[in-house]
UniProtKB/TrEMBL annotation:
UniProt name for this protein: Transient receptor potential cation channel subfamily M member 2
Keyword set, alphabetical order: Receptor
Gene Ontology molecular function, alphabetical: ADP-ribose diphosphatase activity
InterPro entries named in the record: NUDT9
Superkingdom of source: Eukaryota
């Protein structure tokens, strides 16, 4: 299926549910942790991986107009042990970043990121 901008072919269903999102990020567990995670699926990976939908809805954005606006889902995926994200996703902009008030995000985005950091007792 082509995305709306015609940039590239996008495989699969564009309407993913919460289980699909959790499964996608679960793949970044190291192999031995992934097996444990699948066995302990009810808790989304036990002690090695946790997931939570933090926010779903309207988001302030400079590109919003009267007839078009940004709706977003903000997820918290937390890996308590080694993950393989950086090895599997090698594009420069898609990497784990340290949470800081100096991050270059819109104020509403930064607010949500800092709220999630507080959940993990971060001193951002």
């Amino acid at each position: 299926m082509k995305d709306l901008m015609g940039e590239r072919d996008v495989p699969g269903n564009p309407h993913l549910d919460e289980d699909d999102m959790i499964q996608f990020y679960r793949q970044f567990l190291s192999s031995e942790l992934r097996i444990t995670s699948l066995i302990n699926r009810a808790s989304a990976g036990g002690a090695s991986f946790s997931s939570q939908l933090v926010y779903r809805g309207y988001m302030d954005d400079k590109s919003n107009t009267d007839n078009a606006w940004v709706d977003a889902e903000i997820w918290n995926f937390h890996f308590n042990r080694t993950d393989t994200f950086d090895q599997k996703i090698v594009e420069g902009e898609k990497r784990w970043r340290e949470v800081s008030v100096l991050m270059q995000l819109d104020s509403s985005q930064l607010h949500h990121v800092l709220e999630v950091a507080k959940m993990h007792s971060s001193k951002a």
